[in-house]
Amino acid sequence: MDRRFHFISGLPRSGSTLLSAILSQNPRFHAAMSGPLGGAFNTLLGELSGRNEYSVFISDVQRQRMLRSLFAAYYGPEYGAEVVFDTNRIWCGKLPQLKALFPQGKVIACVRHVSWIIDSVEQLVRKNAFQPSSIFNYQPGGTVYSRAEGLANGDGLVGHAYNALKEAFYGDDTANLLLLRYETLVSDPARAIAAVYDFVGEPRYAHDFDNISYQADEFDLRAGTPGLHTVRKKVQARERSSVLPPDVFRRFENDMFWLDPALNPRGVLVV
Fold it and tell me: Could you tell me which SUPFAM superfamilies the record lists for this protein (predicted)?
């Protein structure tokens, strides 16, 4: 494939859609919100495993070729971009496979103060009080405490992504991994995006951080969570008070392992 592939992953509500919206201003790039390719990748990987009675006829070379072909098939000729950034939280848990399939591919993991991630989801839930969200399987019950617990557990929206992020951060394939802090992206977008360009080895582009455009209203409405992928026109930090009870907020305030150099033995780049 002539097209180059990179990957946006990391924690939810941490700027991946904003990052994609900014990058998509570059006519050479394609970037968007999370799509179906990660799920298809996982499904095909499972179907090519030993649970398939015909797996004895499938070599690792064939597995790699078939998995790589997913990207060529999905991003067909209608995508004119030379460089594709595919977004999915699954990619942080697939660094060994991505390294084998796309040796030059980079993974940008978006991260954010975990308490504010929980807060951001809770704010959406309260804003859409009459529309149960897909985030909680459209269940209308629960409290802020049960929702925070559900998000944070190992199978939850935040907990699963957090564990995958740590797996990537402390794994053997960190050379192609960059952690992009939400706080940097919204407060100093020029520095954040310059770091992304340098990391992926592309010439910098003059982005307009005052005129960002991205729409996924139909998807968000179907998910019962209008505003889930809303991107404001101007990139800037916005101060506000948390909607979480203080004890819930404090529960996650020490989870930002990426801020401590002593906890970064492999020297993963954090911007």
Answer: P-loop containing nucleoside triphosphate hydrolases (SSF52540)
